[in-house]
Design brief:
This protein is of the alpha/beta class. It has four helices and seven strands; from the N terminus they run E-H-E-H-E-E-H-E-E-E-H. Strand 3 and strand 4 form a beta hairpin. Helix 1 crosses helix 2.
């Protein structure tokens, strides 16, 4: 499924709707170039979960935890793990918890990721800096069902 957005606000609105649909133990993979809007998307998702704290990029600590919403949000930025992987970081404990894991730059820990997930790729438009295509690919039936619900909400 592809969704075209024309502003930061539209990106956050799609993410907010998704945040209202996620369930415990879900894994969302956020991919895209630098500046594509991965952290912007995570902020919208947090709003959908009822998290009021400001969501920041977890580049330095790798994982930021937000526990005050409907579900805990584990926001990961694994960019610094390029070429190293994350096997020794215990990320699987987050993946197998009662929260929602959001992984920016997931390609750097591909071998540590479960088979079932939702891959969200943010693609920048060459001609318009505000325009993005949000590409949503589901791997597993619960993610496919969630995208069907998102289509209804977004319709």
């Amino acid at each position: 499924m592809n969704i075209e957005v024309n502003s930061v606000e539209e990106t956050q609105k799609i993410a907010e709707k998704l945040g209202q649909l996620v369930e415990p133990n879900m894994i969302l993979l956020l991919d895209g170039d630098l500046g594509a809007g991965k952290t912007t998307f995570a902020k919208g998702l947090a709003v959908g979960l009822g998290i009021t704290r400001n969501v920041k990029s977890p580049t330095f600590p790798i994982v930021r935890e937000y526990r005050e919403g409907r579900l805990p949000l584990f926001h990961m930025d694994v960019y610094r793990l390029e070429g190293m992987g994350g096997a020794d970081l215990g990320l699987d404990e987050y993946f197998n918890s009662d929260g929602v894991s959001v992984v920016e730059w997931s390609e750097f820990i591909q071998d540590e990721l479960p088979d079932d997930s939702l891959r969200i790729t943010l693609l920048k438009d060459e001609d318009d800096d505000n325009r993005r295509v949000i590409k949503l690919d589901s791997y597993g039936s619960q993610y496919t069902q969630m995208l069907e619900q998102l289509t209804k909400k977004n319709g």
